[in-house]
Specification:
Distance between the termini: 56 Å
CATH class: Alpha Beta
Shape: globular
Number of helices: 6
Number of strands: 7
Radius of gyration: 16 Å
Strand order of the largest sheet: 2-1-5-4-3-6-7
Helix content: 25-40%
Largest sheet: 7 strands, mixed
């Protein structure tokens, strides 16, 4: 009976939202990656994006899956507001850049870039690997300040609150840095 209760608790904790593994105030690992925006490939550089303002970096398990499609639509709808606040949005998954060429058009609606991380280098450096399926990214969002420090972090396989939490963090940063 104790073992069953422990398993139930472990399952509940795994399914519940949590803050991402890298903590607020930590230095965000720098990276460059093959990316796609509107079906056009380019090299995304976190350092270059941070020169323009904060970066909303979100990891998602796989392109064209229901939760990832919903999250991409949500970020696409909010991208103009993020841009108005000076923030850049970038999604990262294990998918190939060829897959992301299509995803960036259809699901990201040509609004923000998505980067390929087939070797999981970026996912691992951000501790955003899905424990249950380690070949995939966990659904984790980070907001990174222009100085490279993490302002906010959120992990939940449900895509529902990622945009909201990222937006709050960007607005708070903008208020402190008019």
């Amino acid at each position: 009976m104790k073992r069953l209760a422990a398993l139930a608790l472990a399952a509940a904790l795994a399914a519940s939202p949590a803050w991402g593994a890298l903590t607020v105030g930590a230095k965000a690992p720098d990276f460059t990656a093959a990316a796609s925006l509107g079906g056009k490939e380019f090299t995304f550089s976190l350092a270059d994006a941070l020169r323009k303002g904060p970066v909303v970096l979100y990891f998602y398990p796989a392109a064209f899956t229901p939760g990832c499609t919903q999250e991409a639509h949500d970020f696409a709808e909010a991208t103009d507001q993020f841009n108005a606040l000076g923030a850049t949005v970038i999604g990262v998954s294990h998918d190939s850049v060829e897959t992301l060429d299509r995803f960036s058009v259809s699901e990201c609606r040509n609004k923000f870039a998505v980067a390929a991380d087939p070797d999981q280098h970026i996912m691992k450096s951000y501790d955003a690997v899905l424990a249950a399926k380690p070949e995939l990214a966990n659904r984790t969002s980070y907001v990174i300040a222009p100085d490279g420090t993490i302002l906010a972090t959120y992990t939940d396989l449900k895509p529902d609150r990622h945009v909201e939490i990222a937006m709050e963090a960007v607005k708070d940063w903008r208020t402190a840095h008019p």
